[in-house]
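Structural biology now treats backbone shape like a language. To illustrate, our science desk offers a sequence and the tokens encoding its fold:
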Amino acid sequence: MEPAPEQSPHHAYPDHWEADVVLRDGGTARIRPITTDDAERLVSFYEQVSDESKYYRFFAPYPRLSDRDVHRFTHHDYVDRVGLAVTVGGEFIATVRYDRIDERGRPASAPADEAEVAFLVQDAHQGRGVASALLEHIAAVARERGIRRFAAEVLPANTKMIKVFRDAGYTQQRSFEDGSVHLTLDLEPTAESLAVQRGREHRAEARSVQRLLAPGSVAVIGVGRTPGGVGRTVLRNVLGAGFTGRAYAVNSAFTAEQATIDGVPAHRSLGEIGEPVDLAVVAVPADRVPEAVADCGEHGVQGLVVLSAGYAEWGAEGRDRQRELVRQARSYGMRIIGPNAFGVINTAEAVRLNASLAPEPPARGRIGLFTQSGAIGIALLSGLYRRGAGLSTFISAGNRADISGNDFLQYWYEDPDTDVALLYLESIGNPRKFTRLARRTAAVKPVVVVKGARHSGSTPPGHAVPTRRIPDATVSALMRQAGVIRVDTVTEMVDAGLLLADQPLPAGPRVVILGNSESLGLLTYDACLAEGLRPRLPLDLTTAATPQDFRNALAKALADDDCDAVIVTAIPWVGEDGRAEEGDGEVLADALRSAAAAGPAKPVAVVHVEIGGLAEALAAASGTVARPPAHPAPAAPQATRVQEGPQDPRVEEDPQAPQGTGAPGRIPAYPAAERAVRALAEAVRYAQWRRQAAVPGKVPEFLDDTIDEPGAAHLIDTLLGPEPDPRGRQLGTEEARDLLGRYGITVRPTLPAPDPDAAVAAAARLGYPVALKTTAPHLRHRADLGGVRLDLAGEDALRRAYGELTELLGGPAELQPVVQSMAPRGVDTVVRATIDPAAGAVLSFGLAGAPSELLGDTAHRLVPATDRDAAELIRSIRAAPVLFGWRGAAPVDTAALEELLLRVSRLVDDHPEVVSVALEPVVVATKGLTVLGASVRLSPPPARTDLGPRRLPNY
């Protein structure tokens, strides 16, 4: 039963509730509040709902809406009565409404915190996940308006709606009353509801990408009537790749007599085609794109690849045009790659799609490649082609106004044709989501990233994304924590991608180096040490070594239990006449591949110097055979093995060779030792991360006994006050000590010393020896500037130090001196935590002092940190040996330091109002530690977009 019409005051239209969402089938829809202007849309929508669905909604036959119904369902105060609609093409396909009620089920206003909720979904759109998306959004709206529970009455036969509630993941109660199922949902998000939401997001976004990469039909819009031009080029490439579906050429300028072009049907509009089109490639001038998009939307096209330029890369006017393009496409349920895109490629045998400007599609392979730059995309395709690598999919997203690298991580996560994901990114629109998706994907397959525009501090032209001020070092550290292989150049990305795609993961860092050049072997050895690997001294086979010698040496190395990987170095064979012998490259390749196939599954890489045909022969094996399911390292995926032709007679078969992993496969070859070693080192680090990720870290339970979370929450509320300053506030020294103490973090007290007598009185109170230091902002934590005097054992020394300090640096009013009791000797460190709206809470650690700051020697981890994160944090800085007994010093208490890091992590994770914590210095002694200084900043909690309902970004 519907509540009576609202009496409470009307609130302004909440435009922040508007959202574009991806539905279960990959299509998009818009969710927005219902307004008084929606009467006709509501009536039209209701007329298209079946009698059965109407019965389920109103518990009685309800063939049409009365004028009063229409008024009630379109007039809301957006507080106690709210209605949301899902639209496609501007028309309603579903609605939801809540009405606030009291404990007796009667209409109410705040502080009542329960509401009755009811849904209605058009029958043609049931099964697309519409109601589930609506529930997420109406629940978020209700929480914003102070509603904590939903009540719903559902007929037992309405199993679909019962399932929507049951599967949402909220805490709920069910009962059967008066012939209906009564459901009560607690709207507080739970771990289960968040997991459900993210699971649905993953499936929907992966499906939306699949619709673009595996269409059954493609229309190229803007195909010229004469050869040349972008549209005609794309059509030629679609046909040249052997696309397995139907292709159409579309141009409004075609004459009625133009029946075909390049052998495919030619039409002046999509409406003339007469059958569904899955994907449209738009290659018309920017001012004609809206007309093309409307034509696509009105005829059921599922997705667009927009090659047209003239958008955000052209400035403010172009950005407005780009936003309108996205809005228009999404209103029809379509997603976009582009604009200003280079195109997409899918080499799957069942698809064979080259809807791009690349004239030669790559061979079929196991690498997925995403790039935000057409020029970089061309270079990567060319480089991979030269080195014999194949791709599963290629996407050059241009301005990536809609579909981004996050969407393709969703797709590649479960794509059986992709073993390695390579991404060239110039901007990251949602770093928090990227980190989450990358971590999940990296747990099953490698993710290699090159980040462009790292130091410019500006967003590349065309990328209308929010400006992120996260330092590049922080971005790199967070990627590493998520298992992402971060490299600096596209060359390094290709190098790492080839090894990861073609070779098993190494079980450790132990490397055998063998070859026919002592000098090249030593270069490789040095490179291994520089990358943190554990190489043996190179095995020199001498320049007289034959391919059979290489094979025997490689087989022996692979069979060695103390070997995790092998690097083969090779220089040309020189004949008696001083000329390099021809044809030995192919023979050597056969020998190496045979040995690798016969031995245990360990990675092998080759460093060669101008051996003709070797690299090509090593890459000759096809990489199209699917691997077994990936497992955490060291049980890594087996390298791809494909049967080759007859073996060269110059390479003998070894009947005693161990049984290996199959027929010979591809071995990556590198023209420089440093490149091969760097790629192998990345594989070693990634494999180690995989092994560790298989057994996640944890937060020790002992922390719970020493943390007063409710007390800290009350203190924070008191400090912020009833009307917090949105700019936040810096806590005073005692306030910070009090808050940190609630989390078991003790800060050594300081006493002000405005004059020498006050300093002496403070020292008497604290006890000698003491330290005298300034707290002026320009001198704080700058012992190198002379603002600190230590180990003052008595009054005379203190007065003398006070006089020197004020004489050297300024008066007491400027210096703001304080006295503090001395801490045990140790290593000075810094612990910080900050909140970034994009990346989330970040925990940082480094040694105190100018050298560490100057060199940027600081490590970072995302919060919440586990015991493993804390241990890795202190060991990942370059100066870490100082903590572990460097040059004969006693090791410090790293266990105490790890505990401190975990406490700071818990503090900022439990209380998002704590936006900044800095503990400096933290003196870590051989036993225990002392926090000598602390600063804390509070602010109203920043918005957490990752915890809200699913929505596509609007840039």
User: Anything to note?
Assistant: The longest strand covers residues 91-101.
